[in-house]
Design goal:
The protein is of the alpha/beta class and 369 residues long. It folds into two domains: 11-158, 3-Layer(aba) Sandwich (Rossmann fold), CATH 3.40.50; 252-369, Dehydroquinate synthase-like - alpha domain (Dehydroquinate synthase-like, alpha domain, Up-down Bundle), CATH 1.20.1090.10. It is built from 13 helices and eight strands. The chain has helices at residues 22-26, 39-55, 71-81, 93-106, 153-158, 161-184, 198-223, 229-249, 253-261, 272-286, 291-303, 320-330, 346-365, and strands at 11-15, 32-37, 59-64, 86-91, 109-114, 126-130, 136-141, 148-152. The strands form two sheets. It has a six-stranded parallel sheet with strand order 1-8-5-4-2-3, with helices on both faces. A two-stranded antiparallel ribbon has the order 6-7. Helix 3 (71-81) crosses helix 4 (93-106) and helix 6 (161-184) runs parallel beside helix 10 (272-286). The relative contact order is 0.12.
């Protein structure tokens, strides 16, 4: 029998206005903190966060994240953090990843404050390293989940709707990739990997069910600036359910294709979840899933403005040679794509990407044949 493993953050708090309680939560973890924030987050919320920390008796050193999770940025922040008790990452997924890795390296407590619901990074115990040019490099395991995840839904709502949609694209991959891992009996990402628990698989399913039920309504409400229950549900799905689902079950070709697409410069301006959304289509082609399932994903993503064609990725004229390069990158021995329960080759991955594009264009044009 294989050993099962489950992991997740110690505390997850979500609701309107909870950012004002940052200090009181941080004080339960220590007396000193590095506050690592996006430039925008520093401008909009920096003073408020520092004031909350000061009021709670937590000394704070602040720095602005450079924008890319590189080895150099991790080293800079690690030097700055010194022997502080807590590292607080506030902003988007790359900022949070940097904070988690820095906290691991100095032995500090981990506190994540996502200000957009665009990825499932906030709850996970891993961080992704990129080059300065935005090309995927590798995953770093932190060996523990964040101590506290604080999600202010009013802050999330103020962000451009594109970020929420991208988070839905990322979260949408959770169940499809969990299914891949369950069928291939791959290990999850808890520490060095265990077999998936029933709880982990059910969370991945719940993530998918929530997206299907509330995704379109939440997108419409958030676009209008309205904080409804559907919006709160989708923030939770994007952040908590997807985070727990992917870490406890694993990812596969949707993320493998995303990672490989980063070698093509035209995709660099796209958000993580936008590329993952297209990667789901490639995954479904690779696994030869039900055509109705493929069509459902295409229509759902298109309704939210997520990429479903190569043109949507600014790759309308991409050559077969470049797609083969993507396939070769995806087949790197360390790639997550190997969790797909099918034999794969670089050519097969390239062909799946091209086929996903053709099928999606046919569906959207109304010509399915």
């Amino acid at each position: 029998m294989r050993t099962r493993g489950y992991g997740g953050p110690i505390r997850y708090i979500q609701g309107p206005g909870v950012l004002s309680n940052l200090g009181s939560y941080a004080a339960t973890l220590g007396k000193s903190a590095l506050l690592l924030a996006d430039a925008f987050v520093e401008t909009e919320y920096g003073e408020q966060m520092r004031a909350s920390l000061k009021e709670a008796g937590v000394e704070c050193i602040s720095t602005v994240f450079c924008g890319e999770t590189t080895d150099e940025e991790i080293a800079r922040c690690t030097r700055l953090a010194g022997q502080l008790d807590i590292v607080i990452g506030a902003g988007g997924g790359k900022t949070l990843d940097a904070g988690k890795i820095v906290a691991r390296d100095i032995g500090a407590r981990i506190f994540t404050v996502p200000t957009i619901a665009s990825t499932d990074s906030p709850t996970s115990g891993i961080g992704v390293i990129y080059t300065a040019d935005g090309v995927y490099d590798r995953v770093e395991i932190c060996y523990r989940s964040p101590d506290i995840v604080l999600v202010d839904s009013e802050v999330i709502l103020k962000a451009p709707i594109r970020f929420l949609a991208a988070g839905i694209g990322d979260a949408l991959s959770t169940w499809y990739e969990a299914r891949s891992n369950l069928e291939s009996r791959s290990n999850n990402y808890i520490s060095d990997g265990y077999t998936t628990t029933i709880a982990g698989a059910q969370i991945a399913r719940a993530c998918h069910e929530t997206l299907m039920r509330d995704g379109r309504a939440a997108y419409a409400a958030a676009k209008a600036g309205c904080l409804t229950e559907a919006v709160e549900n989708i923030i939770e799905a994007n952040t908590l359910l997807s985070g727990l689902g992917f870490e406890n079950c694993g990812v596969s070709a949707a993320h493998g294709i995303h990672d490989a697409l980063t070698i093509l410069e035209p995709t660099h301006h796209l958000l993580h979840g936008e590329k993952v959304a297209f990667g789901i289509l490639g995954l479904l082609v690779l696994e030869n899933r039900d055509p109705d399932e493929f069509e459902g994903v295409v229509r759902f993503c298109a309704d939210l403005g997520l990429p479903v064609t190569l043109a949507d990725l600014d790759l309308a004229d991409v050559s077969d040679a470049d797609l083969l390069r993507v396939g070769e990158a995806a087949m790197h021995p360390d790639s997550v794509i190997h969790s797909v329960p099918r034999p794969l080759t670089a050519k097969l991955v390239a062909d799946a990407i091209r086929t996903a594009d053709v099928l999606a264009r046919r569906i959207l044009s109304g010509n399915k044949h």
